[in-house]
Design a protein that fits this description.
- This protein has one domain: Helix Hairpins.
- It is an all-alpha fold and about 100 residues long.
- The longest helix has about 30 residues.
- It has 3 helices and no strands.
Length: about 100
Amino acid sequence: MSLLHFQVLSAALFAIGVYGVLARRSAVLILLSIELVLNAVNVNLVAFAAFLDPTRGLGQVIAVFVITVAAAEVGLALAIILQLYRKRASVDVDKIDLLKW
């Protein structure tokens, strides 16, 4: 497989993720779309690292850091979403107005 195959896969994941962020109303689905975007970045990092210098694992190390930050982001975001659901009984981002509690 060439680098182009990985770039096409990454571009497709990124496009689906951006569409999900822009088109969805549910906060949970927006969060999942952000994860798709981060996974597209990870695919690109690992692919470029494997093709540029296969003896070093720099792309894999950076991808692990991105996955770690994404896991922390998901934990915090889900806690915020759960609190919003308890207060508003909805996770629809159009119905949430944070200035009026």
